[in-house]
Automatic annotation (TrEMBL):
GO BP terms in the entry: 'de novo' NAD+ biosynthetic process from L-tryptophan; immune system process; L-tryptophan catabolic process to kynurenine
Organism of derivation: Cynoglossus semilaevis
First and last residue of the signal peptide: none
Pfam families: IDO (PF01231)
GO cellular component, one term: cytoplasm
Protein name: Indoleamine 2,3-dioxygenase 1
GO molecular function: heme binding; indoleamine 2,3-dioxygenase activity; L-tryptophan 2,3-dioxygenase activity; metal ion binding
C-alpha cells in the first residue's frame, strides 16, 4: 500500500495517492513530447484523424519501427506514450468501422504498448486516464484552466466535438477538486468526532458535486450528438462484450491468445467511485461488477485511494448516530447532489446515444443506402454501453442505488423539520 490511509493514527493525505491539491486526478502539466527516439510514434499519433480519413493509418503503423520502451523512465513520459499508443491502437482497430476490424494488433505497436501499460498498471487500451486526464495543454500557459484556453495533445476523428468531449470531461474532473480536497477532512472529523468540521466539509463536497453537474452541462455547447454517435463513439469502443469484436484482440508478440478490454468511458473516472465509497453507496450485481472492473482501468494509486476510503469507519453510520440536524442536512445535500449528477448524466446519455440510435435505425429502414452521419454509425453498438448491457437501464440502476444511502429518520429528529428520506 502506498498510503497510510487505513491506519487511524496517521493523517489521511491525498498527496500519497498522487492526487494534486490543485488538479485532483488530472495529470499536472502533461508532457507534449517524448524523447526524440520515439519520434516515429509521435509522428503518427499526431496525424491519426488525418490518416484515418485517408484510410492510411494501418499502413503507416505497419511500417513503424519496433521501438524499445526502456528509454521511457519518468511517469509523465510513460503517460504520454500510453496516450499516443492508445490513439494509434483505437485508430488501427476501427479504421474501417465495424465492417473490417482486425484480429491482430501488429507487434511494433502491441509489444511497446503492452510494456508501457505494465509499467503504469493500466490496460493496453485508451482509457479515461489517457484521453481526458493526461491529454491537455494550456494555449496560454499563464491563462485560466477553461474551455477557451485548453486544447488536446492528441485526438481522434470528430473535430471540435471530440475535443469538446474530452475537455468537458476534464472540466468535470476539475470541478470535483474541492470535494476531493475535503475527503481527508471528512475522514479525520469522523475519527475525532468533530461534527462542526464534518458538516462544513460535507457542504463543500455537495457544492462541488453541483459544480460537476454544471460543468457536465457544457457538453451541449461543445459536442454535437450526431458527430458523437456517428463518428466518435466507435473509436472509444473496446474489444470486450462487443459483438463487433466477439473474439477480442491478439496483441502480437505479447501472447498468442486474444485479450479483451473495455473501451474508454468516464465510468473509469475515480471521482464517483470515491464519493460512492465515502457516502456508503454500494453497487451490486452486474452494475456493481462492471463498476468494480472499471477500477482496473484507473492508475493503480487512484484505485488504492478508492479502496482506502472504503475501509474507513462509516460516515453514514456516524451521521445517523449523531442525530444532529446540521450534519444530517449536509450529508443529505451530498447524496442529493450525487443523485442529481447521475440523473443529469442519464439525460445526456439519452440525447447522445438513445435518441441518435433510434434515429439511425429509422433512417436505415427508410433509406438503407443512406449516407448521413448517424446512419453510418455501427449497428453492433447501438444502445449498448462499454459493459455491453443496455446503457440506460445500467445507469438507472446505478442512480437508484445512490438513493439507498439517504438517512433514515431518527426518533430524536424534530418531525416538523424536513423529512430527509426521499
Ligand atoms: C456525450 C457525453 C457522454 C456520454 C454519451 C456518456 C455515456 C456513458 C455511458 C454509455 C456510460 C455507461 C458505462 C459505459 O458504457 O461505459 C457512462 C457511464 C458513466 N459516465 Fe458518462 N457519458 C458522457 C459524458 C460523461 C462525462 C462528461 C462524465 C464526467 C466525468 C461522465 C461520467 C460517467 C460516470 C461516472 C459513469 C459511470 C456510471 C455512474 O457512476 O453513474 N460521463 N457514460
Amino acid at each position: 500500500m502506498t498510503a497510510a490511509g487505513t491506519n487511524p493514527d496517521t493523517a489521511f493525505s491525498l498527496d500519497s495517492y498522487h492526487v494534486s491539491e490543485e488538479l485532483g486526478f488530472i495529470l499536472p502539466q502533461p508532457l507534449k513530447e517524448l524523447p526524440p527516439y520515439y519520434q516515429p510514434w509521435m509522428d503518427i499519433a499526431l496525424r491519426v484523424p488525418e490518416l484515418l480519413e485517408a484510410h492510411q493509418l494501418r499502413d503507416h503503423i505497419n511500417k513503424m519501427p519496433l521501438l524499445c520502451s526502456s528509454f521511457l523512465q519518468k511517469h509523465r513520459e510513460l503517460r504520454l506514450a500510453h496516450l499516443a499508443l492508445g490513439v494509434m491502437t483505437m485508430g488501427y482497430v476501427w479504421q474501417e468501422g465495424e465492417k473490417d476490424t482486425v484480429e491482430i494488433l501488429p507487434r511494433n505497436l502491441a509489444v511497446p504498448y503492452w510494456e508501457v501499460s505494465q509499467l503504469l498498471g493500466l490496460p493496453p487500451i485508451l482509457t479515461h486516464a489517457d484521453a481526458a486526464l493526461a491529454n491537455w495543454k494550456k494555449k496560454d500557459p499563464e491563462g485560466p484552466f477553461d474551455m477557451n484556453n485548453l486544447e488536446l495533445l492528441l485526438t481522434l476523428p470528430g473535430d471540435d466535438s471530440i475535443q469538446g468531449f474530452f475537455l468537458v470531461t476534464l472540466l468535470v474532473e476539475l470541478a470535483a477538486v474541492p470535494a476531493l480536497r475535503n475527503i481527508p477532512t471528512v475522514i479525520k472529523s469522523v475519527r475525532s468526532g468533530d461534527c462542526e468540521a464534518l458538516a462544513r466539509a460535507l457542504e463543500v463536497i455537495s457544492q462541488s458535486l453541483q459544480d460537476m453537474t454544471d460543468a457536465l452541462k457544457l457538453i451541449h455547447d461543445y459536442v454535437n450528438p450526431s458527430v458523437f454517435y456517428g463518428t466518435i463513439r466507435i473509436y472509444l469502443s473496446g474489444w470486450k462484450d462487443n459483438p463487433i469484436m466477439p473474439n477480442g484482440l491478439i496483441y502480437e508478440g505479447v501472447q498468442t491468445a486474444a485479450m479483451e478490454f473495455s473501451g474508454g468511458s468516464a465510468a473509469q473516472s475515480s471521482l464517483l467511485h470515491c464519493f460512492d465509497e465515502l457516502l456508503g453507496v454500494r453497487h451490486v450485481k452486474s452494475s456493481g461488477r462492471f463498476l468494480t472492473r472499471m477500477r482496473n482501468y484507473m492508475p493503480p494509486v487512484h484505485k488504492e485511494l478508492i479502496q482506502d476510503i472504503s475501509m474507513q469507519p462509516s460516515l453514514r453510520d456516524f451521521v445517523q448516530q449523531q442525530a444532529c440536524e446540521k450534519l444530517s442536512l449536509a450529508f443529505h445535500h451530498c447524496v442529493t447532489k450525487l443523485l442529481h449528477f447521475r440523473s443529469y448524466h442519464i439525460n445526456v446519455v439519452s440525447r447522445f446515444i438513445t435518441v441518435p440510435s433510434a434515429r439511425a435505425r429509422q433512417l436505415r429502414e427508410q433509406r438503407p443506402d443512406g449516407k448521413s452521419n448517424i446512419s453510418k454509425a455501427p449497428i453492433g453498438l447501438e444502445e449498448r454501453g462499454t459493459g455491453g448491457s443496455s446503457v440506460i437501464s445500467f445507469l438507472k440502476t446505478v442512480r437508484d442505488q445512490t438513493k439507498s444511502v439517504f438517512l433514515l429518520p431518527t426518533p430524536s429528529r424534530d418531525k416538523s423539520k424536513t423529512n430527509l428520506q426521499h
